[in-house]
Write the C-alpha cells for this entry.
Amino acid sequence: MEADLQQLLAAWLGQEIDPARHAELIARVRDDEAFRQAFVAEIHLLGMLKTVQSPESRWLRIEDELGWNAPDLTDHEALEDVIVQQLPIEPPAEKRFRFTWRMAVAASLVLAIGAVFTFNAVQNRKQAPLPYPKVDALNGLAMFLKGEGVKWTSDTEPHPSTGDILAATHLDFTAGRITLSMLTGVVVEVEGPAHLELVDTAKVICHRGRIRAKVPPGAEGFVVLGPFAAILDLGTEFGVNVNDDGTMKGRIFKGKLEASLLGANGSPERSYYLDSEHADRTQEFLIDSRARRMDVVPKTNDFLSASAATALPYLTLPQTYAKTVLDSRPWSYWRFESVGSAPEFEVKNEIAGRPSLRGMGHFTTAGWPGANQCIEFPSTPDRQFLAMKELWTPTWRDGFAVEYWCVGSSISHSSLVAAVAPQDTNNHVFLMELTSRNRLTFHKPASHRLLHRWPAGWEGGDNVYSPDPYVPNRWQHVVGQVRGDRMELYVDGEPAGTLSIKPEHQDTLCQFVVGRLTTQPGSGVSIDRPFVGRLDELAVYDHPLSIEEIRAHSQLGHADPERR
Amino acid sequence: MRVLTQAEVDSILDRVENGHRDAFRLIVREFSLPLRSFLASQLHHHDDVDDMTQDVFIAAYRDLTTFRRGSDFGAWLRGIARNKLLDHFRSTSRRERALDRFRQEIGRLVEHDLETAALTQNAETIEALLHCISRLPEKLRRVVRAGLEGDKPAELAKQYVTTVGAIYNLHYRANQLLRECVQKGMG
C-alpha cells in the first residue's frame, strides 16, 4: 500500500495526520483517478467488513414507527416470502386487536390455510421460469424486442423477454411470433413453429420457420442460411420460409439480394440475383437442396407479413415537471409543446432571452391533447435536425449538463445532441448518442454514449457508454455532464458511467445540433446518424446537476403505453 | 439468501402502501445490510451507522409514495442516506477543525464513485464476504476482524511487534484477497 493511500485512510478513519498534507491529498484524490478508485475500493470494502462483523441491529425505532409486533424474522422468512409474492392484496392492518379465543380460532384457520397455500406456492415457484441470463451488449448479437403468443419448445430453460440481449443461441418454439433486432439494426421477425440459430450479428441459420427481415442502410451483408442454401442481403426487406421437408423459399419485398444453393463445402453452386425494382427480375425462388435444384417460381403470398409498426409511447409528466427543471436553473430549456410547421419549424426556449431551436425536416408533436407533448423525428431519407439559433459556449470551467428524455424506434446509431465547432463541420467537442454495431466504428452497441473531444475533432475522444442497453420503444431519461475534470453519464436517474478528462479547455463557440450528427448534407456513419423517435424536455445547464436533482427529474416521468 | 427481484420489491412496496406495514420487514431485511455497509464506509461509530440506518428506513417509509416503481430502491435509499450524512456532518463537525473540513472535502470528491461501487453490491455480496473472511490466513483474518478504527492499528502493531504501516499493509493485502474471493464466489 502506498504511503499516500495509508495516510488518507488513516485520516478518513479519524486519525490525525499532519494538516500540511491535507491539500496534497485532496489534490491527489481530485486529480489521480486510479488513486481515487483505490481509496474508494478500500473504504467501500471496509464498510462491508464492519457491517458483516457487527451484530444485526434490533430496529427498535422502526418497530415503533410502523407498529410492528416484533416477531422473529427468521422463523417466518419462508412463509413471509410466499405470502408477499403469492397472496392477493390484503386489507390494511391498521387496527390492533386484543388476543381472544376468537382470535385463536382464526389463527388456527389462517395457519391451516397458510400451510395449504405454502405448499401450492412452493409448487408454483418450482414451475416459475428462470430469469434469462444477462448478456452485456459488447458480447451480444441481438435484442429480443417482442414475443406474441410464443410457445417455447423447452419448459425448463429460461426464455428471453423484451429488452434482453441475446448471445449466440438457439430460439426454438412451436407457435407464436418473435421480433428481434440484431445489434446492427437488422430487424428479424420469425413465426413458429421455428428454430432459429443466432451465429453472429450478420448471420443467422433458419433450421425451420418463416422469417421476415428488414435491413437498414449500413447493415447490408446480413445472411440467412438454410439447408444448403443462403440469402445474402444487399439492402432489403425479404422473406424466407424453411419448410419441414428441407426446401427453402424466398421472396424479395424491397431492394436487392442474392440467393444461392450451396455445395457440400458451403460455396454457392447456383445463385439468383433478386431485385424488387424490376418486374422482369427474379422476385421469388425455391431451393430444394436434396434434389440440388434452385428454381424461379411465381410470386405467392405465403410469406410472413410485416407486423404493424409499433407505435411509440407518449411521455407522461406531471404539471410540476417544468417547475422542477426550472428550479435547477437551466441555461436553456425546450419543452416541445409546439414545433411550428414547415418550412418554419421553431421551438421556443422556456428561458426568456435565450435562443429557440430551428428545425429542418418534417417534425410533428406527439401527445394526448391537453397533456404533455414531445417532438417526433420521423424516418426520412432527407436531412433532418434542429439547431440552436445562436452559437453556444460550453462552460468548461464551471461544468455543464445536457438533459433530455428520448425513445428510439429501433436499434440504430443516432445522435441526440451534438456540439459542433466550427459550425457546419463534423468536428465535435460534446456528443450524446444511441449506438448500434457497425463495421466502421468500435462502439459498444445498443448503448447510450457520451463523448468528449478536445480540441474539437471528428475522431478519437473520451467515451462513456451506459452499462445497460437502451430498448426501442422505451422512454429513458438521460443526462450527460462535465464536472471539472470528469464527464458523467446518468440514465434513468442513476450513474451510468464516468471518465476523467483533461481540464484544458478554452471558450469555444459551438453549434448545438439536435437529432443528427452534423448539419452537413449527405449520409454515412460520420455524417448523419439520424435519430428516429421522440425527444422531450431538452435542457442545457451552465453547471453540473447533483445526483439528487437528476433523480428528482427522472422520477417524475414515465411512459404511457396506453396513449400512442 | 435469495435476492428479491425488482418486481418483487415493487410488489412489496405496493403492499406496504396499501397498509400492510409488516411487509416492510422484507424491505428492511433485503436492504439493511447494503445500506449499513454504505453508511459504515463513511461513519466511524457502529451506533451512528445503526441509528442512521433506522432514520433512512423511517424516512423512506414516510415518503414511499414518492418512490417511482421500477427504479432502483437501493439507490433511492442511498440518496436519502446521503442527505442524512450531510446533516450529520454539519451538526457534528467543527468547521474550524482541519480534519473535519478535510473529511468533508474528500467525501464530496468520492461521492460519485462510492455510489457507483454501491450499485454492484447487494445483501448476497456482503454475505459472501463472511465466507471469504473465514478462508483468510490466520494473521490476516485477525487483522480484518480487529479493523482499522481508532487505536486498533497501534494495538495490533504492538501485538505483532511491527509498525502501524505494516498493519495497514496486511489489511490492504487481506482486502485484495477478499475482493478476489467474493468475485469468484459471485461469478
Remarks:
- Chain B has nine helices and no strands.
- Residues 134 and 141 of chain B are 7 Å apart (CA to CA).
